[in-house]
Write a structure and sequence with these properties.
By secondary structure, the protein is an alpha/beta fold. Helix content is 22%, strand content 30%. The chain is built from 4 helices and 8 strands, in the order βαβαββαβαβββ.
């Protein structure tokens, strides 16, 4: 066996049920923690594409009706490169980020959140999952995973038959 592991060799598979449960848990953790009256949040901004499902669930759970996106590209397949913004949310709504909840599925190296935090320094950054290198960039998360774990999200997967571990009978 090779000493170098490919990203998929230490995989953490997330089902639709799991991402839904974990996103709801994140919503509950964020409830009444916004700067608005009664701890309300002004808006949710999903970092696309991975943050869209958690952001939708959080917006529903916390009854936040204003939802926008920021499109940041930092991966090409499983290779991470320099993060670049492809689409920004409404500037009038965003301001410096005060009262805005920025949501992503995962913080890995932290480069994406670092870039978005530069634009909106007072926003609250929340992710469902966090790796150690990225943790300093996130304010709230649910589950920590090791840096060398590759997370397989349900929107990236298809069901297929898998041979048994031992034998084929």
């Amino acid at each position: 066996m090779s000493a170098t592991r490919l990203p998929h060799e230490k995989g953490f598979h997330i089902s639709w049920d799991q991402i839904h449960r974990d996103s709801r848990a994140l919503a509950w953790r964020l409830d009444k923690r916004g700067p608005g009256e009664d701890g309300a949040w002004k808006a949710v901004v999903a970092i696309t594409r991975g943050g869209m499902a958690p952001a939708m669930i959080i917006a529903r759970e916390l009854d936040i009706r204003t939802v926008d996106t920021i499109s940041v590209k930092s991966y090409h397949h499983q290779d991470q490169g320099k993060a670049q913004i492809l689409k920004r949310p409404d500037p009038e709504m965003m301001g410096d980020g005060t009262g805005i909840l920025v949501v992503d599925d995962l913080v890995d190296s932290g480069k994406t959140l670092e870039l978005v935090r530069e634009l909106f320094p007072n926003a609250h950054f929340a992710t469902v999952y966090a790796k150690p290198k990225g943790e300093p960039q996130v304010d709230t998360f649910i589950t920590g995973v090791s840096q060398d774990t590759w997370i397989f999200f349900p929107w990236d997967m298809a069901l297929q038959y898998v041979e048994p571990y031992r034998g084929t009978d």
